[in-house]
Amino acid sequence: MPDTPHFDPPHSVAILAYQGLCLFEYATALEVLSNRRSADDRPLYAVASFSLEGSSILTDRGVPITVEASDEVFHDAQTIVVPGWRMGPVPDPIAAALAMAHRRGARIVSICTGAFVLAAAGLLDERHATTHWQYADQLARDHPRVSVDAMALYIDEGSIITSAGSSAGIDMLLHLMRRDFGAAACNAAARAMVVPPHREGGQAQYAETPVAEVHHKAFSMVIERLRRDPAGDHRIETLAATAAMSPRTFFRKFRAATGHTPYDWILLERIRLAKAMLAEGDLPVERIAERAGFGAADTFRHHFRRVVGTTPSQFRAAFQHDGNSLQAAE
């Protein structure tokens, strides 16, 4: 990413507000972009909020805010930020306004489920986009012309940028600042907020893979055994015997109860354990591979990248970078 600015400050930004607005993501956009200044003390962004649903907005947390309700802010904005959507149908006036803004040359960016608003405006058709991993399948179902990447932190398609969950919105906005005004401006903002200055958009969302609660006593015993010794040699025949079932019955009922085959459940549990060791310690990857039950480091790297979307080393670097940044600020 070049260090030379793409724009002369201040660059005008409008943050879209609406009833049921996600307060955290709205505040995130204000925090990242407001009051940032250039080396010669000029404001980088002129940030304002606007609404097409009245000036009095009740956020998702029940906190009321007051924003500009005139069209002037909207029509003058060079960049429009769309925070997390309240879900449900997007009103035609909002979708039409965003489509019109994009046609006149405005850049449109979304945080988390704000991608649903961009999709309703037709701005994501035939484009790659992301949103929070929990809503990725719904976005793909509701808007089949959008190529949804459920793992990316953010995706930059030039005049359209989408990001994943709330913290990924910070990454996307810092990426935006880096693109607009160079690395020095981005790094200064990141230091002020005590966050990493740059995470690649293609880096995976660090979403835990949920394992269904199991209330069947036999399966609870099996899962307790698996968690107690994840590196053990857990063959279907042995697990089925623990549950007092035939291997075929055990396989079928385990998948019905957990949503995973026994093999996949063990793999996800080993990945979960490996992620904890990578984030919290300094064991070599080879030792983590052994302790988590993968055996060889190459096997571990293969499965980790397939499931998590990044390498063990990149995963560790991201978490240790975050920790070091926070310790340096204390």
Automatic annotation (TrEMBL):
The entry's keywords: DNA-binding, Transcription, Transcription regulation
A Pfam cross-reference name: HTH_18
Top-level taxon of origin: Bacteria
Example of a GO MF term: sequence-specific DNA binding
Tagged with keyword DNA-binding: yes
Domain (HTH araC/xylS-type) ranges: 216-318
This protein's name: Helix-turn-helix domain-containing protein
Organism (species): Sphingomonas alpina
